């Protein structure tokens, strides 16, 4: 694909900065700054503007606060959003045949919308509903009476167990397990008796779920992931968890049973949460932290057990000084003993 | 389904508490307290008795230590066990066709018991044995000469490699990998030479294994999970690990190679264990803890490296006081210097 | 299989230690010390020489620094390497039919080398290339235009998305997801807009990837795992990560986006790394540690945030002494107050 800078500027609703003839520059691809070669367009925001200027890129998308730039540039309100638009433009869409592959197995009472792809060896059980434009890759299993929305993308090897609901414009990556049994047992005379997990999982619209993530069905009622939340690889959500809207759950995070998480919450990588607690909106949990009790809205927490980030920083700093403190105390003890000896004399 | 309170009381071997005509109350479902609606029965133990009483539930299963209750109730010795019985009663069993699906591929010398389901696109290699009443979901792979017991349930996308043994009444959730190679290498002239992993995995009766969990085969001999142990999602057991009976391994726990774990041990969420160590019976490891040396039976450990829970609590408490301690030491230093100056004069 | 000690000594280029007639001893299997029975050969290096001598093993492979041994032995330069050779000798190779199974689905323009096995229900999309002698197990998915090298082994249920490259002599265990989308979003007006992940994954020669591990494709350019690196189960590599040659990434490790890791680096179990940082060659990260900034070559780090191991040990030791320190400070305060009182009088 080949586009002029003028065409790209129009697409991202930006303004070309520099010479008039820049608008005829031909762009053949879009990349990050580090991988940019001639013919590429990239984007930069402070403090990366200089780095992008020194790159071999043909042009750079910059914020509209930039009025001078040593390279052909397009000024836009939000360079990151423009970058996404350009990536979409230059990314050839994988060629998905809109058909039910003859090897896909569909149960009875399956309802499939228009323009759907169900690829080879997918198994769709009785009573499943699939919305328009949805694409289901090979080796996927969808259990009885589950409902999948429209414009949804399910990659290979995904399992969605019975009676679950997946919304519209959802993306589920390879190997994710949705609706597996929650981990519930009653211990009686030393034996662990399984508590039937008869609830389901509800995944709302625009959710993304990472590769090999696991989301357990509720004991009764539903495990819920609300609209716009993005879940990374190998994340675990236990039974009856509720995650609010537009959250980020970064890789290898685990949320224990019945935790209720507000909207716009970020769990950074390898974090966790104890079960049966409530986390307010807009909280951020730094990497590897994990709360063990309720967290008020708008908190920035770190450490384990998670506490306010400033407090954690002070404690971590103090731990670094500990060997020195031990020396100081020894010194104090010696000096004090000396004084006490003098007193006694 | 509709049952009278009288019928339910008989089933759970309990006694109805309250008015005589309570026995005709009709129950249409069973749920947790929070989700209870009219027509539902739920259960409650202290301190949740009041909460259940205030819920819209039609009736509540309570401990037999309760003699008065503001709502229709059934008194039983163990409300949790009764709850499991009721859940099983009201849960429609998924309709599993007992057949070898024509698309399932069976090798030579495969022995399959009675009343078994092998679903679509399962691949069962030569010499595999499967016991009576076992259900194998689609896209499952069972390697050469592995033996699967009776009344066992294997969900979609599970891989069980060659020569492994899975017991009776075992449940394996979607995407679990049993019998993958242990992580064993000999480093020689800077290259890592693979040590063939020629052992296997033995899963005893009544074990449950979570979604996308991984249990590696032994280098030689066996990786073993003993009877009644329950393993949650994304748990990792390395080669030659042995887990005793009736343990809990909660989500995202990882046990390193050759660790020997006793019976009735609980590893809470996101815990771990170093390799080549021995952990006694009845130990409990708090969330995110991990022992790095042997642990005696009946220990309650926390932190990393894991230590007795009380010790961990004291250390954590002390860390919280550190910034204050630093101030105190500074203050002591100043006061002491003042005294010393006076002395010198 | 039955081999004389003489034959085995020749195979591992070792020398029999002890009586001349030891060379006729018949060996029927090879095991670790703990599982050794009569007829077995095992290996031992200090401090395990005595343990092996007391085992029921028929013979032991020992280092050539050993000149006397109470049991038939073979002296070799490297007993571990000899052990691998013996394991390979005594391990029956699984019988893999070299054929494209009729149920495997191959797209157009697929190029397959000689002596390849593509097993049941594998799905190979258009334009894929597979080298000689490669074995692909059932339920594997290989996306458009991906290239798989020769002598490579891909176990069941693996997904390799489009445009990825996998080298020669690579092993990928069950359920691994290669080339899933990186976790990249631009947040705009509170919504998380997906950044298309249009790069790929490059797995070089002799890499091993564990069960249910996930390696995300780059946003643009490539996520790279270089030659000879070994990755354990449930490890996560984010987009644009680069891992050098001959590294070890032990189970449940997670490397965040764009981290660049040198060669011969070890990440022990349950470690992690922050994104966008550089880790030098030959670093070792102790179990559960995670760096949050650049790490120079040859570092041995522990803890979180990861710091030099000695420093971590001192801090951990000091934390253990904290309750005692608090007492000491209280004592110092009392004694000092007493002295100050005297002064005032």
Outline of the structure:
The structure is a homotrimer of 345-residue chains. The first copy, chain A, has 345 residues and is α/β, with parallel strands linked by helices.
| Shape call of chain A | flat
Could you tell me which chain pair has the largest interface and how many residues each side has?
A: A-B, 61 and 63 residues
User: SS-based structural class of chain A?
Assistant: alpha/beta
Return the average pLDDT of chain A rounded to an integer: 95
Number of strands of chain A: 38
In percent, how helical is the residue content of chain A?
10-25%
Low-pLDDT parts of chain A are none
Counted up, domains of chain A total 3
Oligomer: homotrimer
Q: Return the CATH class of the largest domain in chain A.
A: Mainly Beta
CATH architecture of the largest domain in chain A: 3 Solenoid
**What integer value in Å does the Rg of chain A equal?**
27 Å
Cα-to-Cα separation, first versus last residue of chain A? 95 Å
- The fraction of residues assigned to DSSP E strands of chain A is 25-35%
How would you portray this structure in words?
- The structure is a homotrimer of 345-residue chains.
- With 345 residues, the first copy, chain A, is an alpha/beta fold.
- Chain A has 3 domains: 3-90, 3-Layer(aba) Sandwich (Udp-n-acetylmuramoylalanyl-d-glutamate--2,6- Diaminopimelate Ligase, Chain: A, domain 1), CATH 3.40.1390.10; 105-310, UDP N-Acetylglucosamine Acyltransferase, domain 1 (3 Solenoid), CATH 2.160.10; 315-344.
- The first copy, chain A, has 4 helices and 38 strands.
- In chain A, the strands form 6 sheets. Chain A has an 11-stranded mixed β-sheet, covered by helices on one side.
- The longest helix of chain A is centred in the last third of the chain and has 36 residues, at 309-344.
- The N and C termini of chain A lie far apart (95 Å).
- Chains in contact: A-B, A-C, B-C.
- At the A-B interface, strand 21, strand 22 and helix 4 of A face helix 3 and helix 4 of B.
């Amino acid at each position: 694909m080949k586009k002029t800078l003028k065409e790209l500027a129009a697409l991202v609703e930006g303004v070309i900065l520099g010479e008039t003839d820049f608008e005829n520059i031909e762009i053949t691809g879009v990349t990050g700054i580090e991988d940019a070669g001639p013919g590429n367009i990239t984007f930069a925001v402070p403090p990366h503007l200089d780095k992008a200027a020194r790159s071999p890129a043909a042009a750079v998308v910059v914020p509209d606060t930039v009025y001078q730039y040593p390279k052909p540039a397009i000024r836009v309100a939000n360079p990151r959003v423009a970058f996404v638009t350009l990536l979409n433009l230059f990314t050839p869409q994988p060629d998905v045949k809109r058909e039910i592959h003859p090897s896909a197995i569909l149960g009875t009472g399956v309802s499939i919308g228009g323009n759907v792809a169900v690829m080879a060896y997918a198994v769709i059980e009785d009573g499943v509903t699939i919305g328009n434009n949805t694409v289901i890759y090979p080796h996927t299993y969808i259990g009885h009476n589950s409902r999948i929305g429209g414009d949804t993308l399910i990659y290979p090897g995904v399992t969605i167990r019975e009676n679950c609901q997946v919304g519209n414009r959802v993306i589920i990556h390879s190997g994710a397990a949705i609706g597996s049994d929650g981990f519930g047992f009653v211990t009686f005379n030393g034996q662990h008796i399984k508590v039937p997990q008869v609830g389901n999982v509800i995944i709302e619209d625009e959710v993304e779920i990472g590769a090999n993530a696991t989301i357990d069905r509720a004991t009764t009622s539903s495990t819920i992931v609300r609209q716009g939340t993005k879940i990374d690889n190998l994340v675990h959500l236990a039974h009856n968890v509720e995650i609010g809207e537009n959250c980020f759950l970064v890789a290898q995070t685990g949320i224990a049973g019945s935790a209720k998480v507000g909207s716009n919450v970020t769990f950074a990588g390898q974090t966790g949460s104890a079960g049966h607690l409530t986390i307010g909106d807009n909280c951020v949990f730094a990497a590897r932290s994990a709360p063990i009790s309720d967290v008020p809205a708008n908190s920035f927490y770190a450490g384990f057990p998670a506490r306010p980030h400033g407090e954690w920083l002070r404690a971590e700093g103090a731990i670094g000084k500990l060997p020195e403190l031990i020396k100081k105390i020894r010194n104090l003890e010696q000096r004090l003993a000396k004084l006490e000896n003098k007193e006694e004399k």
